[in-house]
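Before surveying the methods themselves, we first show a specimen of the format, giving the amino acid sequence and backbone structure tokens:

:::
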Amino acid sequence: MAALGKGRRITGSERSQVTGDLNERYSAGASIRELAESTGRSYGFIHRLLVESETALRGRGGSHGDAKS
């Protein structure tokens, strides 16, 4: 997917196409941050499209502070 251009409105069939592509890439393991960087859009924009399309979002990674050392 090519960069979408920051601030440009994405509507109609283009929005549906972009959402489908982002959903596929996210489901294949790409993070929201990776998708944002590769498209030139914000984290919030990518997150909003995934939520609007009812994509099951993964939990946050990293340490949860409950590891016993």
